[in-house]
Amino acid sequence: EKVLSKNDELASALRQRFVRHEVFCLNLISSPGSGKTALLERTLEALPKTAKVAALTGDVQTENDARRLAGAGFPVKQITTGGTCHLDASMVGRALEDWDLDGIDILFVENVGNLVCPTSYDLGEHAKIVVFSVAEGEDKPLKYPAIFAVSELCIINKVDLLPYVPFDIERAVANVHQVHPGMAVVQTSCTKSLGLDAWLAWLERRRAHAF
Amino acid sequence: EKVLSKNDELASALRQRFVRHEVFCLNLISSPGSGKTALLERTLEALPKTAKVAALTGDVQTENDARRLAGAGFPVKQITTGGTCHLDASMVGRALEDWDLDGIDILFVENVGNLVCPTSYDLGEHAKIVVFSVAEGEDKPLKYPAIFAVSELCIINKVDLLPYVPFDIERAVANVHQVHPGMAVVQTSCTKSLGLDAWLAWLERRRAHAF
Ligand SMILES: Nc1nc2c(ncn2[C@@H]2O[C@H](COP(=O)(O)OP(=O)(O)OP(=O)(O)O)[C@@H](O)[C@H]2O)c(=O)[nH]1
Ligand SMILES: Nc1nc2c(ncn2[C@@H]2O[C@H](COP(=O)(O)OP(=O)(O)OP(=O)(O)O)[C@@H](O)[C@H]2O)c(=O)[nH]1
Ligand SMILES: [Mg+2]
Ligand SMILES: [Mg+2]
Ligand SMILES: [Zn+2]
Ligand SMILES: [Zn+2]
């Protein structure tokens, strides 16, 4: 019988709080620069101003991402780890201390840029979402399988660059499904606002099944 | 007085072996997909066939990168970590066991795709090299400062994409120098073979000062 790690205990407690207060929580994971913040910028712009949305964003250093997300007018907080390569449940718990969870319907958590370590740290989320971009190469799902296996949605971003990069998008989707058969895949461009409707539709459907 | 970690001890032993056998060793670090393997492909193609070059490449899964590098005809070995997000000195030591170090003048080590964790694992190298691409955003040096601070060279790759991405290259270089004043920076495109001469020149100069 596996002994629960400290993180698992804290994550479990967070998960129960999210259920109790009906907070739909998503954990966005990708390499540095795949476009997590850009995706959240487009998302927060697209959601109604009356939506009860909030975001936490994690980085080793700087408040850059929180500053970018704050523009939409929803509550946003930066978690700076100082060195740790992933967010953990204790950091998320601390960041949420002075927020009223009854005032939050959707909580986006942008993880530290890292395709490996965040995989094994439960934050109490309803689902992990993995993002990778067409600039990174179609073999990424095969080379970093764990995050693709445990996530519920794969976003392939920066499709506007397809004419200029050696990226085989059919091969990429096949690789995703080799690691995670049937995984939902949405293709986006955050700079050209492509594919955002499909992403928002997934969000709405997944949230409807959350409680 | 800081107690040496197990990794530091093994790395120190490797470093002594590299000195003894005059092996010039470089540790290439970047996010997944910035172009480490592509850079090594271009490099191994450019070096004379008589050069005593070898490469180790680390990944969580697959032998894809070793397969790509083997095409140049030099000794290449894949290290698969199975889950660990960085190479460490014990893995490099094991990989080198059946190689004759007297037959190697230059050893390239491609680290696992990760901009955080490899920073703190000495592999016995002469220098760390950090690669990031114009697709990732110019704030990466500020957001992941440790690897930029400890590396000796920064390669900004995929400059062929500059017309199509919102990347301010002057801002990017300024950010590199904010974190590491005076750091050497080379701009490359591995797909269009741009900037490779500058990189090879840096390599030659740095190797001349290695022993
Ligand atoms: N061409 C193109 N560039 C994009 C797209 N989405 C984001 N970018 C750019 O990619 C760079 C990185 O985007 P970010 O949103 O900062 O990526 P991130 O995943 O949040 O990065 P970290 O938080 O540092 O891990 C920025 O320069 C963005 O403008 C896209 O769809 N197409
Ligand atoms: N446009 C463009 N694409 C590039 C360039 N260099 C590499 N690529 C592409 O970028 C993708 C990733 O390149 P890789 O060489 O696999 O990157 P990597 O850093 O070795 O990736 P990992 O080992 O998985 O961390 C591939 O599709 C390459 O063809 C470049 O200069 N320009
Ligand atoms: Mg971000
Ligand atoms: Mg590689
Ligand atoms: Zn880690
Ligand atoms: Zn790590």
Q: What is the element layout, followed by pairings?
A:
Two copies of one chain form a homodimer.
Chain A: H1 6-20, E1 24-30, H2 36-46, E2 53-59, H3 64-70, E3 76-80, H4 89-95, E4 106-110, E5 127-133, H5 140-143, H6 145-150, E6 153-157, H7 169-179, E7 184-187, H8 196-208
Parallel strand pairs in A: 1-4, 1-5, 2-3, 2-4, 5-6, 6-7
The complex binds guanosine-5'-triphosphate (2 copies), magnesium ion (MG) (2 copies) and zinc ion (ZN) (2 copies).
One magnesium ion binds next to helix 2 of chain A.
Mean pLDDT of chain A: 97
How many helical elements of chain A?
8
CATH superfamily of chain A: P-loop containing nucleotide triphosphate hydrolases
What small molecules are bound in this structure? guanosine-5'-triphosphate, magnesium ion, zinc ion
Instruction: Give the end-to-end Cα distance of chain A, rounded to a whole number of Å.
Output: 28 Å
Please tell me the CATH architecture of chain A by its name.
3-Layer(aba) Sandwich
Number of domains of chain A: 1
Shape of chain A: globular
Radius of gyration of chain A from CA coordinates:
16 Å
The CATH class name of chain A reads: Alpha Beta
Largest interface: A-B, 35 and 35 residues
Strand order of the largest sheet of chain A: 3-2-4-1-5-6-7
The major sheet of chain A is characterized as: 7 strands, parallel
H-E order of chain A: HEHEHEHEEHHEHEH
Secondary-structure-based class of chain A equals: alpha/beta
Q: Which residue ranges of chain A are poorly predicted, with pLDDT under 50 across at least 5 consecutive positions?
A: none
Q: What oligomeric state do the depicted chains represent? A: homodimer
Please estimate the helix content of chain A: 25-40%
